[in-house]
DNA sequence: GCACATCCGTACCGATCGGTACCGAAGGGG
DNA sequence: CCCCTTCGGTACCGATCGGTACGGATGTGC
């Protein structure tokens, strides 16, 4: 059964193409497509620039192959979640899998599929941090507001104001990404209402 | 009362600085900080490159001023929402305001605070679209799965499989942004569980 | 009307971007 | 042993990036 490994002519490749692809996944994941320069990629992959182009075609081709590998690897929880027995267990598996994959120690935070065209390069890190602080400030405002609500008896004493604020921020962030992806206002209003249905009753 | 407008020496500015800032907001909003080139900005603002630097300092300074103006303008719904009478009405005002602001006809979709360091320039539009398609595919899978659940009696017949799928995607996107912003796994697990508490019962 | 300060825009800077021409090296097939 | 094919890296390409030097224009204060 040598047909599965028909030794190609010419000088053999001196690096493991899958291992190099794994390195590329990490770079795109943490820096995004635009933020990942060829120097970043070649340095992480341990190969030269022409080697990258021979093996993967172009930066964009490389990104698509990295996304594919990410889908079959670190994001494979999604496919497994679809096979869960009930809709509730599907939903739980999707969200818990997302949380787990987005917060893996030693790996970039977040999801390549969301941040790939979104994350930023080194040069504008200050801007990115400023925006994180901007969103953080909003969360802090909400936390204080919900603490007042607890104090006023408007929310059950068992409520966690910070959790509620973080919950709202998360929904709002998700809505922003969905809107930028083309979701309609009517759809997102329904999503918002569904998210609000789990709000604690007084 | 001329002290409030002490006519400065030198040649007066030939353009309205606030109007130019509004144009800059739209550019950063739709293309992100890195994706917005100086040519994009100067073309939209109708001023030359040195004029931009004299009036705003640098590209980064301009971004911060644009973010400030966005906060006080199109994102002012957030400050108003905090003043709503009950926590539930705060939450509803925040999410509905987010949806409305993120889907304003004639304005960029999404939120400058989320997409500012995230959106992409023209050059990688194909990559961005590919990622949108990637997330869309996931939503489609979930929709089919939940349709099966309805057919099997696992979900109430009144359930909307597409809405449930979109809801999950939105939460997952928000979780990814939060994770990239530094939220811990423990926090996000709580957020996920809260989101799951509104899942329809059989 | 003259000095001064600021604005205007053209035309340029070095750095970096993604991508490639080129040539020596390393393998298999005849 | 030679040819062919592919891989290796150096050194380069044009384009674009953010940022600025500079000289002419336009206003106020003396």
TrEMBL record, chains A, B:
Q: What are the UniProt keywords, alphabetically? A: DNA-binding, Transcription, Transcription regulation
- GO molecular function annotations of the record: DNA binding
Know the name of this protein? Answer: TetR family transcriptional regulator
- Ranges in coiled-coil conformation: none
Q: Which PANTHER family match?
A: HTH-TYPE TRANSCRIPTIONAL REGULATOR YJDC, TRANSCRIPTIONAL REGULATORY PROTEIN
* UniProt signal peptide: none
Question: What organism is the protein native to?
Answer: Streptomyces pseudovenezuelae
Which intervals hold domain HTH tetR-type? Answer: 14-74
List the transmembrane segments: none
Per the record, DNA-binding region residues lie at 37-56
Which Pfam families does UniProt cross-reference here?
Answer: TetR_C_13, TetR_N
